[in-house]
């Protein structure tokens, strides 16, 4: 009887998209004792420079160990809570007592794209595959892969389009607060876009940066999304190209120029916004009557002689 139970316990591979789930086909009693993967995301996307989290949940782990392996070179990255990679960007993220064994990847690069396997050292070994895609932040999702010209035209004609209100070059005095309002129109969308990213010189803005004073408010709609970026107390460090980019669609960019206070005042004075009672431009009107007075006085003295 025991031999029959052992013979009936085997692992079946099923596919869900690009991922593979391994399910035990033994009796219910045996399944309760064996590790099994719970459904999690099989595809993960991240921008260059972001932190990527690859999920894996294992129920009934018992005394077994969860490891993460990179498929393209069969390199073991983590085993349990320990890292086995010389690349310090990789690490295991696990809370004691939890079923979650997450692979964390800091400062993601495009070369990190590929398949990663969450493995459990059962006999035979079981695994769950997660596909990671790392892309440039200035390229919309779905636009990275090669497209035919017809497909590209179709995409560009139906994709959401962003527009930042105001001139393409926005000049503000140093120390002031500037607000950039981005309107994203998506008439062909049946649901709101997933999100909006703000970038400075093609790098994602970090709201936890030491600078502070950065705020973004986004109001999503099915056909229209509005995202407002506010920068307080701008300095020369804030100069650059600011882009508003929907997760799906085309971005918009404006250039921010910060003018120093003295220079701004000088420009206003030259433009006539600042006047002074001692401005030499007022002198000619005063000198002309005085010149006539001197001429008349000299002529009067001649006549008297």
TrEMBL record:
Q: What Pfam families does the entry give? A: I-set, Ig_2
**Where is the Ig-like domain positioned along the sequence?**
35-133, 160-255
- From the UniProt annotation, give the residues forming the signal peptide: none
Coiled coil ranges: none
GO CC term (a single one): neuron projection membrane
Matching entries from InterPro entries are given as: Ig-like_dom, Ig-like_dom_sf, Ig-like_fold, Ig_I-set, Ig_sub, Ig_sub2, Zig-8
Name the chain's protein.
Ig-like domain-containing protein
